[in-house]
Amino acid sequence: MVASNVQIALRIRALSAEELLSVPARLQKNVLSTSPFAPNQVIVQGERKQVFSFDNVFAPEVSQKEIYDRVVMNMIDKVIEGYNVTILSYGHASSGKSHTLGISDGVSYTRESKGIIPRAMSTLISYINSAQYKKRKYSMRISFVEINDEKIIDLLSEDNDKIKPQILIRDESNGQILWSGLQEIKVNSLEEAINILSRGMLNRQINTSRLNDRSSHRHTIFSVTLSQQKFIPVNGDSVNSSNLSPSMLSSKQFSGSKEINKQYEGDWVTVTSKLHFVDLSWKDMDKDIPKSIILPISHVISNLGKKTEEVSETPRSISNAQNCPPILKEYLGGNAKVLVISCVSPAAFQVKETINTLEFATQARNNKDTTVIHQEIGWYNVEHLQDLVLKLRAEVKTLQENGTNSLNTPVNEKQRRRSSILANILVNSNILQNEKDSTNLDDKISLASLDLPKILEGETLNQGLGPIIEEYEKSILSLENQLSHVRAALAYSENALHLQEDKLKDTEETNKQNMHTINDLKNHIAKLNERKETTEIEEIESRDDMVAELGKKIENLVDEITYLKETQTSDSTNSTNSFTEQVISKEVILESKVTITGKEEESEVSNAELLVAIQKLHKRLAKFEEEAMQNQQLIDTLEATLIENEDSLIAANKKLSILQNREDGLLKQIKALNSRVEEANDETENAKSDLFSAKQTMERTLVEERKSKENLKFQLKEARNEVENKKAEILLVKQEEKKIKEKAEMSRITLENELERLLSKKKKFGCF
């Protein structure tokens, strides 16, 4: 028994070409770094600086071959030595797990970029064909399965198989996992192994596209079962086992000599080792690790790494976690050397997933696996059993020929039972050797060799099949519970859909009211526009016309006043000047006449006429002065009227500016109302869109719930059919058990008769 820590290797992948094109440059920043002074450490520059240590750290530039040579090659050596080995690839979506194992986008064993599985198969087959192990007999079988929501899919089964056996897994009391119904294909060359791997990957792609699978519970397991037979002498060193082969005992002609018997005294031991490649895969829907799938596995590995006093459960009970896939129990917490290759991306946009993977790997590093070499003394090998029967017959013949004194040697019940088992196996193997399928022959002989001891010891098959029936009944109850939960969820979804429909109706009514309000606002705006056009604009235009007319009148008055001023001034000036000149001239004439005549005192009539003329001239002067005064008053009146008109014009301009401001305010109100109408329309459209999206979402949810309900009904029906089939199989097995018992009894009687006959002969020879 060997105990060692689980080996953890970290692989950092490079960014793909698609990521370099689609992801922004700031999110392509490298958050992982290594140091040449600590090559097994990695530093994460996230929200805070974190340092993780592992057994091996591989940078993006490290090749597939270097990874295989450094961490995988020694695990293949352990498989040859007889240990079980599990190589587990772990990480978030698109982190390079499948590429590392070599099961992504086709398989090729000629390219430099081939993964771990093709290289491991090449190493195993080269070991088998090497001169060092040529004396051993090897048998290699391959299985390829996919676990999808705890449903096991055999990727190597053919689609044209009419009847596919149900794949079942049972936990044995010794902690081993037993399969039933799984197809294991025997391979002899690297080409056959790669073809089987390619076939399984093709079937996986076909199943995924056919079922339109969107499940996140998908794990792929590629298993290699290696059986090797080697000869172990009884005394430990009397025979060189390298000079023997499993078929030598059957090919030798036993002469009965003691030397020959001693030469081949020993057992052929069958050592069976298993190599598992596990790809833990899940879909990254919300860029968050699906905790319902990965956490149970993390719980198994992390608890196995704790001290015994820190864990209340045993490793076996831990590995039986409810959510952990049953097939992974043996690989994670059983008898296997484990290598975990954690794959991460260095980009900043996946730093959360990267840290989760690194924390898981750190927990897993403290685990210890306990492994033993599983070897059997040839009970599963038909050729070995045939050789053993021949050896027993040779011993009997030797006793007959030599006549040894062993008459009183009793044949105990254990030897008789063993002889009966061997004889029965020999008879059954001779019958089954005529069948075409050698793989089925080995399986049937193995099952017979397992069942015969139980039959002879009085164990019934019902004890082994009872747990299976109970498991199926539990599965049916679980499916019925799931169906009830789905029905409740469906009812809840329907109620939610009804509530959404009611909300949709209320929203539609609200939208109708909003539309009425919007129409009223539009009508009000139209009326305001009409009022603006019919009242305000007309008033403004009339006032503009009035102001224009007043301006024209004022201009005319100003022109008229100016003209009158000029005319009156010129006329009055001219008339006054002329009159004054006339008066002066007449006065001068009169004075001259008075002066000339001097002393002439002519008639008083002429003087009187002159005085009258002077008076008339004074009157006319006074009249002109009065007219000038009237004209001045008219000018003053016109100037006052002009001032009043100017004041009226200023007031009209002020009122016009007020009206213009009111018009601007109304226009702003109209714009605000229009914007409110547009916002209301946008909100209505958004509400309609949201309601339509919610309705579509609820309809899709309802359809998915109905599909889930139908699937659960179908699964329940299948489970019931499987139970019925198992019951029929139980009846067939019971009938077969009865036949085997009868054959065993007949073989036992025959062998007892043969032994009695041989003993009688032995006694007879002993008497002489």
TrEMBL record:
User: Which keywords are on file for this protein?
Assistant: ATP-binding, Coiled coil, Cytoplasm, Motor protein, Nucleotide-binding
The record's subcellular locations are: Cytoplasm
Q: Per UniProt, where does ATP bind?
A: G91, H92, A93, S94, S95, G96, K97, S98
What InterPro entries does the entry give? Kinesin-like_fam, Kinesin_motor_dom, Kinesin_motor_dom_sf, P-loop_NTPase
Q: Which Gene3D superfamilies match?
A: Kinesin motor domain (3.40.850.10)
Question: A GO term (biological process) for this protein?
Answer: mitotic spindle organization
Q: Per the database entry, which stretches of residues form a coiled coil?
A: 469-538, 607-761
Q: Which SUPFAM superfamilies match?
A: P-loop containing nucleoside triphosphate hydrolases
Give the Kinesin motor domain ranges: 5-367
Q: Does the keyword Lipoprotein apply?
A: no
User: Which is an annotated GO molecular function term of this record?
Assistant: microtubule motor activity
**Which Pfam families has this protein been placed in?**
Kinesin
Q: Which is a Gene Ontology cellular component entry for this protein?
A: cytoplasm
User: Which family is this sequence assigned to?
Assistant: Belongs to the TRAFAC class myosin-kinesin ATPase superfamily. Kinesin family.
Looking up PANTHER family in the UniProt record yields: CHROMOSOME-ASSOCIATED KINESIN KIF4A-RELATED
Q: What is this protein called?
A: 7773_t:CDS:1
Organism of provenance: Diversispora eburnea
